Amino acid sequence: MSTFMNAANKYRRAHWLAKHHLAPLAKLYEMWIYLIHNSFIPASCEIGEGTSFGYKGIGVVVHSRARIGKNCLIAQNVTIGGRSGHEEVPIIGDNCYIGAGAKVLGPITLGDNVIIGANAVMICDAPSNSIWGGGARSAAEGWRRRARPSARGGGEPCIERIFQVHSREAFVANVLFGSNIPVDFDCPSGIAKKVAWQAAAFQAVTGDTAYCQFVHQGSLVITRPDFQVVDQVELKPGYLQRIDQYKKLSDWAIRHEVRFLYYRFDHYDAITHGFFKRMKRSEAKVVMEFATYPYTAERAQRHKALLAHGEYLAYLVRKIHVIDEWLHIPRAKRVLDGVVTYMPHKNIWGIPVTVIDNGVDLDAAPLRRLALSEGGPLTMLCVANLSFWHGLDRLVRGMCAYGANEEARPVRLLVVGPETEELKKLHNLVEEMGLDDSVMFLGPKTGADLDSLFDEAHIAVGSLGLHRIGLDRGSTLKVKEYCARGIPFIYSYREAQLRGDEAFSLRVAADENAVDVGAVVSFCDNLGDAAALAKEMRAFAERRFTWESQMAILADRYYETVSL
Length: 564
Description:
Helix content is 32%, strand content 21%.
């Protein structure tokens, strides 16, 4: 039935009838396609063998003179048509993929093995073995709008609203750093940057090219460590997306001969286990990273939040995931070669643990140029995708208590990061305590904008609430970045690489009490030469916090035994 219901099969019947001079019957098939699939695929167009339409061809429009090659896949809501002022229409080569909502218009030719991303607008020729995108973008190149002569339009300029991502020549990807992390190429999150930094460092240590995998706007995206996209695969929507993601990721990894997979823990259910099992059968080494372990307290808090918001169905689904995970954890040691974490564990789930520390890309975290105001308010800076375990509410409550002393030095807090549920709660707390003039929410910042905030801040804010997820020690990424940038910081847990009495850091109590902001001000006032301290912190980071030193541990333990 599914074959019969696909628009491609009705088109082939219509095309056969038209070629045999049975135009009225062919017209009936065209009407059938229109009524059933809400598509226009005329019998007169040329579509090669093996070409099919995603989602049965819903919403597809094809020009009556268009030519499409063999073994192509055309997603839903694609338009392949003409353009005003031009008689010629698109010619599409073999083995092409055109993503959902894409528009291929006018006198252009797409070569063989071309990928067109979702929502792209193609009005210029695309060479064979290339990838072009619209909704996604390359962080290295970004959007480009440029005029150049059309290859078939007699010299008339055409405006490209697309970008060429990378050559699609066949390549081997020996090393893949995978994750279930959504990535925003305009402003990658700290976690996404961490995955990219790990891949870059592993590449530097081993000499083998490493790739990263993220999720972006409903697609599986493979990038280089600099976020340059090298491949993109559209995923099914809704609850099927996760199943489709791991299926297509394993297909991609096996096709590109991945021999070392380093995957960030999401949750371990039947889908995850099946993915690792398939990778293991392909003779790849499979290593999983736990950013936090144990993670049960953090998960319980998230489940509690779902109930508090009345999201009972989501809560039930999460509980089913927990049961599924409980059933599959005993089988994990059959498919995992190792586990990596940042806490001093010997084994997890019966699997030997390799303990590493968080690192930082020193090139991405430049030493700050001090621009501290003389006699002005003391500026505190927090850069985070805010969660409850950051404990920033403790600092806000402390600012409220501190502000009762009218003679005290003014303080202000700059909060940098995307909108999250915890950030919304913090907004409400700030309004409730009347601190709107002292706490500024700046949204995501990158590049020079972020650097300037570090330049003008007196002190940065690390995690103040790890105890809320049952941890009294940890290894957080932000502390490493603060050290690399040379900015003093406060935190509330036992940091793996710190004694707790360093001159550049202030450790506060790990409890629910408000932070003593007066003590923070006093600490900053007694720091001494800020420029000298910044250089000392940078040197400290260079000795202890490079990703190369941490990835060398992984390479020594796992990668030397990989058969390449």
